[in-house]
Structures are given as structure tokens and as C-alpha cells.
Amino acid sequence: MEEQLKRLRVSQIKPGRRHRKDFGDLKSLAQSIKEEGLLQPVGVTADMKLVFGERRLRAVRDVLKRKTIIARIVDVSSIVAGEWTENEVRKDFSPSERVAIAKAIEKAMPERRGKSQKFDGLKGRSDDIAANRSGFGNRQTYRQAQKVIANGSSNLILAMDQGRVSISAAALLADADVDEQNAVLELNEKAILQAAKEVRKRQVEREMESQRPKRRKRSKPSKDDAKKVICGDAFDLIPELKNGSINLVVTSPPYCEQRKDYKGVSEAEYPEWTTEWMGLLWDKLADDGSVFIVIRPHIKRGVLSDYVLRTRLALRDDGWTECEELIWLKPDAPPLGSRQRPRRTWEHILWFSKTPKPFVNLKACGRETDRVGFAGSIRFGVGGDSPIGHGQHRSMTNGVARTPDVFTATIGSNGAGIDHPAVFPIALAEQLILTFSQERDRVLDPFCGSGSSLSAAKRLDRDFRGFDVSKKYVKIALSRFESI
Fold first, then answer.
1. Cβ partners under 8 Å of residue 46, min gap 6
2. Is the pTM value of this prediction over 0.85?
3. Which domains does the chain have, with CATH numbers?
4. pLDDT per residue over 314-345, tens digit each?
5. In what order do the strands lie in the sheet with 346-353?
């Protein structure tokens, strides 16, 4: 069969009626063509009917807005035969091959693991870029395929590569032992998916059961507190933590350009700075762990800064779940802030986790009351499963009410003589630690300052770790343990 390469006007090519409906990520394909060139021409018949390469044609025509494209003039028995040959006979990369490609891409990147960066025309975390470039599309699918390669039997990996089992189902099955994996693969597609869900359900149940005795048997925190409070940069020290070893993070990082004692972070840089240290923390945090960041934006020339808002959105974009809006109320707050605005008496408590269902004990800080239940008016009768639905039970009982979303802690509770510009109340840290962790859990404050979070953790029989770049503040944090 004689073939010719020609540069044709895209307007001349006639796609006709095609069978492929899903064209995938045309923008990424267009970027690849722009950077690397058109590695594989499209195929057309002598009368300009498209045989193969519709994705490439659309990327060049619709995204890059180019007028011409390199095409191969081919002679096929029919357009349908040519399309089938191009899309079915050719072999795409298997998921396991894509994992190998993605790992090679990550290896080629600069050493900025967990941090946002630019590489090969894309911006983001290294695993996001690798997932995109290797054809997974997103970080989650890439991680699922990695899990199958690491834990799956050879039969399970083969089934995933052949498309008999989806990547997500294979990732669930990878938690089972090899014999069960192989047995499940003998079932039909629907039964395999159901079996995979059952495997995951059992795995979650085993994990929940195993956590209780593990927590009781865990050894008490070491008395050598000096080894747990380290003077150094959180960006250097977080990577040294063991994966999954942190159950709770309670911290108040240096506010944007507000602390002379620390190297200032500008408003423009603050979102990326936060996503970088949070990115390093991702693998270190337990699957049901939480991160709490106490912060509030400042007023500058009469306008509220938006760096906290942009930071919250940046963390969401980076894969973190923002679970709820919480408030720290400080009734005795000093008259800080703009004199043209009301006196500031509260701060944000930003709550992030890797999951929408992190550990929480809503009764730990709840108060005793004889009014547990709803005592609303009939004018709220709206039906449904709302707590104020018409006809629902409105009687009240004695008990412990759920903790509210406003945590009250006075500044005066810190005591006097602590040489730090913004001492974090131990009372606030205690409420957060009681509500969002259990005894023997490990609490981290990567910007520990005077050590309030660490003191609270020690009081409540939690293990703890704290980092700070100031030797002075590390000494203050250690000295505060003496009163516990």
C-alpha cells in the first residue's frame, strides 16, 4: 500500500460520521503537540475523508487554532475498517505501564516532593503532573494503580491491564490476600465489583477493630520531652516523621507579615507557602486525622486582606477536605486591629482533613444539660428529616449536648510572664485535642511557638511533637512543661 505525507488545510478534511465519542483531554494533547510536534499524522483518503486521528485533528483545529496539519494519504477498504484498525487493533499503554511511566516522570522532576511546581508545561504537585502526563488524568487513579502493582497478585495486575477489572475495583481487591484475589477474578464483572466492595468493607471493619486495642497498648509518651520539641524548620522536619504517625495537628502558623520574630511570608506567597507544608504533611497524617489552623486576616488601609480566603481555596484545590468553619471566641481580647473597626474578639479555626469523615468526639467538650433535644416552635413545621421538622419528637432530656462550633478560650488563661508576642491559649488547644483525638494519639504543632498545643497534649495524655525555628521559643515551650 503506497502512502504519502502532505500538509493539508484542516478545513479540507471531512471527519464524517465517527464512532468514537469520548475525546478525552484535548487541551493536554494540544499542549503536547505544541511542545513536541505532531508525532503521528492523521490519516485521510485521497478525497479528504478522515480515516484516523480525530483527536489530533480536533486538538490542532479547535484548541491550537492552526489552519494546516500533516496528514498521511492512505488507501483503506472502508472508513469503518480504518477507524477500527486505528482505535482497536493498536495497543494503548496498560495501567501498569502507565505507572512505570509516571514514576519515571516524577523521578525526572526537581526534588520538591509534595510541593507545587512547574514541569513540562504543567503546574501542580509532582504526582498530579505525572498522573496527567502518563494518561491517568488524576492523582487518585494513579495512586490506586500503584496500590495494585504493590499489593496485587500477578493475576489481578494482568486483569487490570487487560481491562477486565477497573483500576478502582482492582485497588479495592488489592487489600485481600492473594488466594481471595484470584478466586474473585473467576467471577463475572458485576460480581467482581461487588466482591471488591465487600473486601473493602471487611478491611475497614478490621482497621476499626484493631485501632482500639492498639490505642490501649500504645506506650506512654516518653519523659524526655526535649526530644519531642525540636528547633528547626518545619519544611525540613515534617518529612522525617513516620507516615501515618500524626493523628491531629493544632497550630497557629506565623500570620502574613505580622510577626517580626519570624521570617515574613507575603500575602501573595502565603497560599503556596501553606500548600507546600501541608503537602509535606499529607502522608504523615493518619487517614482519619485532622489539621486545625488558627488564623485571621488583617485590615490594610481599610480593606480586609484576602490571603486567608485564597489559602483555603488553594488547599481545597490541592486535595484537602475543608470539613467545617469553626471559631475561637476570646471575650477578653485586647483592643487590637483597626481603630476604625469593631474590637476583634474572634479568629478562624480552619479545619482540614484527607477525608470528609475524620475522627471526632462531639460529646468530649459538650456540656451537661437538661435540654438535650429540640424545643422549637410549631411555626418551623417543614417536615422531612430536618431536626425542626413538623411532627418530630420535641421532648427534652438530660445528657451531654454536642460541642458547638464556637470554642471559647480567654487570653487571660495563659498567665503572665510568657515572652511570646501571640501566646496560644492552652484552654483552646485542650478543647480541640479532646474533641478531635483520643488518648495516646500523637499531636503535632509544626509552628509551636511557646508550646501551648504541646502543653495541652501532655496534660491530656497524648503523645506530641513540636517544631519551631526559634531556640528561644523552644526553651519557653519546654519550661512550660514543668507546671504540668
1. 73, 75
2. no
3. 4-89 (3.90.1530.10), 95-217 (no CATH), 225-366+402-483 (3.40.50.150)
4. 999 999 999 999 999 988 777 766 778 888 88
5. 229-231, 463-468, 442-445, 246-251, 285-295, 346-353, 321-329, 406-408
